Amino acid sequence: MKRLPTPEPFVVTHPVSPPTRLPVLLLCASLLGLTALGQPPTASPPVMLKLRGVPFTQVIIDDAFWSPRRETNRLSSIPVNLAMLEQSGNIRNFELAATGARTGYSGPVFMDSDLYKGLEAASYSLATDPDPALDGRLDAIIAKIAAAQQPDGYLNTHFQVNAPDQRWTNLRDWHELYCAGHLFEAAVAHYQATGKRSLLDVAIRFADCIDSIFGKTPGKRPGYPGHPEIELALVKLWRVTGEPRYFDLARFFIEERGQQFFAAEHQTPKDRYDGSYWQDDIPICDHQNIKGHAVRACYLLAGATDITAETADPELVRMIHRVWRNTHEKNVYVTGGIGPSAHNEGFTVDYDLPNLTAYQETCATIALALWNHRLALLYGDARYADAVERALYNGVLAGVAQDGTKFFYVNPLESRGNHHRSPWFGCACCPPNVARTLASLGGYAYAVSDDALWVNLFIQGQVKTRLAGHDVRLDVTTDYPWNGKVQFKPRLDSPATFELRLRRPDWCPSATLQVNGAAIAQPMLERGYYVIRRTWSNGDEIVLDLAMPVQRVAAHPNVTANLGMTAIRRGPIVYCLEAADHDQPLDRLFLPPERELVARHSPLFGGIQIIRGTALQMEDPDWHRQLYQPLPEPREVSLTAVPYYLWDNREAGAMRVWLPLAPRTPPAGGLEQQAAVSVSFESGNAQIQGIHDGIEPRSSGEQPSALCHWWPHKGTQEWVQYSWPKPVNLRGAKVYWFDDTGRGECRLPASWTIEYLTENGWSPLRGPASYPIALDQWCETQFDPITTTALRLLVKMQPGWAAGIHEWKVTEADDPW
Ligand SMILES: [Zn+2]
Questions:
Q1: What distance in angstroms lies between residue 505's CA and the mean position of ligand 1's atoms?
Q2: Which of 74, 241, 294, 486 suits a disulfide with 339, CB 3.0-4.6 Å?
């Protein structure tokens, strides 16, 4: 095997020429599709600048914001990750595979990937904070991984233990290539952190094995992964080893995508195949919008960006810019994350950004940041670093508890108090993904070009790099993100001429710039970066002062979930309201535009800026059998907003990011709205309040903002119950059933009945003619009048399917017939 040079830790420059000898073009405007980029015709063409990221090992983070979080990550999250991986059987699966065992495998098919991600995080940690005990622990785990590898290089414990004769038979669902990708990323990280080849050699053997199987040349087979990841990982492996076959294999997986391979693999007739979930519906260069599973989409786009950085393929470039615009103009949460829907862990339609049911998987926010980081390096345009910053300070950081031991997989922007972080997950992709991001955080902060140092994130500490023939150190002093003032001091052996390029964030309404105490009246702003070119000397001082007012944010009117609402933001931080700071129910509060909001220091969470002000509160009128009534008087209540990333770190309670500007007028319903709702199976996916919110569906397939369903329970008998504080008299009920055929696993139920509570317990109704079941309409039943304090709707689900309810209404006994 080829000998590798001593590793240059985390250098992201390219050690070899790209195997494809296309010149890296200074692409002309027409090639890049400038209209798709949204540039005015006179703007500079978006040249591929190919900046080099400054490795995180060259960045010292020494501030009050990130340093404690990173220390918690190192001392708490990474050990918790390794312990849970041990406990959940991820490591034992390798021991089983090494012994040739055929039983005893634990967990889903992608268990290996979570261990690899944990190793990647731990390796990054070793690179900045040497730790012999951790180093030794990784060696021991890696030895088990190496022992499990088969003679031909193959390595996947699920297949080796459970299905050794089924290798590569289900690329769509069984995640072999996805797991391999995470192995490659971990191997590169471990090699660069420690200089040891132990895991890298394993990765190389497996990469060679995969390369011998997949490709376009005769004798090789077609295909690509159901879950992208290996593409960007192969590019990393190519950069470290210099082996061009790895780049070519990554390119093959990217360029082949969209041939509807999974239809053939699963014998699905093409006229009945919708491959959009896997980004496999149309050829990759034809994509117009972001689609399908959110993590897959962004890992794929990150890999595609890596490929275009080398090939400059104009079709691929155009696709990336088209899809980027669709993503960021129509599909990103204000918290920087993506993927509104739980049913496909991904996208639905443009502007569909519900709050209560927002999925916004932590991994998806990370994937979006990874894609944007690559674009930031490729183009040197601040819009990409803006997206990275938005994700890091909000959606990503929310993924882990303040103490580093609990994690969010799903990140809603509103909660009724029933959504909390978990110590671990059966599908444990998110915890190690957060850990590896925080452990390598400095790598997102700076980039260099031939004669410029680019500052993308503002973090107190220092960065060292080589620039224009000089060793350059830049000291940074700031209290960001709580204060927008950032001071930079170059440290140089001798004067050096280069540019400092300082990002002006997209949230910033105004900024000033000083060099050695003198204001720069009209600083040059290029693609979102202030450009200061001069000969720098030791002792020079640059001060960037970014105005950081409290801002009210509105959403595009097409985002119906946020119509008439506002979110609070200051600097990069998006805020939320938590029940812990308020005596009143949060859904009664509204915040008219004229109400003043101010930022205040708070000792909460070790010292943060909170937002204080007054909101108004108004009780919902009771419209039961009333056409007119006096409007209730609103009353002032004090408002406290805390950073979104910190929510659910105190006592459990409700949370909201978006607040109404005026009192809400919820749809008025009947007696059902006065009932408390309970359900046989509670989960974060089941929004039981949706069942009596009065919002009438237009079809069974509509995806409402709040929905009661029992998924992932399937085929079982379940119930939902209304309980009233006083007896009610009823003679009928009607149900509008949910059915998400084509998107999810809810179907019409097999049957349903209703019981009511009597002194002797639950009793069947008397006299119902039938319990009809139909799509797209109310399914109504009438029964002999009853007096009760509770009704229970019993639902028998079809075998293999879940069921859900849009709305359940009751008819009062004295309602007119
Ligand atoms: Zn995840």
A1: 28
A2: 294
